[in-house]
Amino acid sequence: MLVSGRLVLRRFRPGDAEAFAAYRSDPEVARYQAWDTPLSLPDAVAAVARHAAADPERVGWFPYAIALDGELIGDLGVNLREDREQADLGFSVAAPFQGRGYATEAVERVLRHLFLDRGMHRVSAECDPRNTASARLLERVGFRREGLRRQSTRLRGEWVDDLLFGLLAADYRRELADGGEPGG
């Protein structure tokens, strides 16, 4: 479990299934994501059970539930790579909670954990270039735009580009040493 100013990033719980199904079924939340919509409640129950059983120490994706006052408002996934020194991340926040800094807070807390507690060398992320809010968030927390993969992902019947972002531990620590928050 990771705690930030307003949020708790924790394991998923069975009681999260209804909220998970709701925001994962929202076309606006799913617009730039690869999952299918709508997400039925039985499928959400199964997904939440899989998420709850995931191990953050194992290679592969570990999904954190983003909770505000005990309520699930989104999720943040960390994909630990085989070398255990690099990870990818992705995030989603329910529409009523977007634009309030919750995703930024969650990403900042996970980055602190990955770099300072786990000793990661590099964290990567990617997003659809049309998802300007996510691209701005990644840059705000210190990621550098590293490239563009043209028409590399098939999403809802169309080929879309992927913006590539990366953040090195050295850059993250330099920002902290300079007295600021990374990206700030």
Task: Quickly describe the structure.
InterPro entries: Acyl_CoA_acyltransferase, GNAT_dom, N-acetyltransferase. The protein is of the alpha+beta class and 184 residues long.
Features:
single chain, 184 residues, 8 strands, 8-stranded mixed sheet, Aminopeptidase, globular, alpha+beta, 6 helices, 34% strand
Topology:
Layout: E1 2-3, E2 7-10, H1 17-25, H2 27-30, H3 41-53, E3 60-68, E4 71-80, E5 86-93, H4 102-117, E6 122-127, H5 132-140, E7 144-155, E8 158-168, H6 169-177
Parallel strand pairs: 5-6
Antiparallel strand pairs: 1-2, 2-3, 3-4, 4-5, 6-8, 7-8
Helix pairs in contact: 1-3
Protein name: GCN5-related N-acetyltransferase
Domain N-acetyltransferase: 7-170
Keywords: Transferase
Low-confidence stretches: none
In CATH, the homologous superfamily goes by the name Gcn5-related N-acetyltransferase (GNAT)
Task: Determine the mean pLDDT.
Answer: 95
Instruction: Name the quaternary structure.
Output: single chain
For the largest beta-sheet, the strand count, sense and barrel status come to:
8 strands, mixed
Taken in chain order, the helices and strands follow as: EEHHHEEEHEHEEH
User: Any idea what the shape is?
Assistant: globular
User: What is the CA-based Rg, rounded?
Assistant: 16 Å
The helix tally amounts to 6
Strand adjacency order, main sheet: 1-2-3-4-5-6-8-7
Terminal Cα span = 25 Å
CATH C-level class is Alpha Beta
Keywords: Transferase
GO molecular function, one term: acyltransferase activity, transferring groups other than amino-acyl groups
Protein name: GCN5-related N-acetyltransferase
Domain N-acetyltransferase: 7-170
